[in-house]
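Course assignment 3, question 2. Fill in each field.
Student: A.L.
Task: Predict the tertiary structure for the chain below.
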Amino acid sequence: MADFYPHEIVKQVAFNKNFNTELVPATVLLDLPEKTFAYAQEATGTYLSLHQQLDDARKAHEDLAKRFAQQQSITETAVREVARQVKGIRNVPVDVISLLDIATPTDDAQKKVAAQAPTLKMTVELGVVKGAYTKYKHQGVDVYCCRTGETEFTKLERFSMNRFVDNRPNRVPGQPEQRDYYAVYVDKDQQVGNQSATVSVVVGSRPGA
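Answer field:
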């Protein structure tokens, strides 16, 4: 059997608006006190008020969802820009990267690489010692050398290029000598990290010979 009370929300709202509006006039027409059906008047009024609040909340939610989606992009762009600038600072402290939680797997790999000691590659060409290393964005290296007849390493020079030469003549002319080298990375004119492994070469009678 058909029911007068609708089940669809849109139709319910329209029905209750009309019922709420016409209930008192209908009560008067029945020669009954206006408050006779006050409970129904209150019920439909509350229904309509809550529906309006729900509708307002839904619209507000949709608006907030749109604004939030826009803000997501704005926020990501701002954060990425800060991360780019911070990571672009030379020798930025690792604690800062950790504090902001902006490290990436690539950053971790680079950090590990940066922490390594230099790897020297030393060769002798025509009596001249030639060295090479990978900078990994460091300022350069301090290279130390100890030659045959010397008892300790002394600083050869600070090199900012990733290739360098040692064209000093042998300590004893006409006699071959062994030269031992190691290096330490330099940043902001300060040594950082550990020293490299020692690499040895033998130089002939005289550089350039």
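Instructor remarks: The chain is about 45% helix and 20% strand. Strands lie at 121-125, 128-132, 140-147, 154-159, 163-166, 177-187, 190-192, 199-203.
Grade: pending
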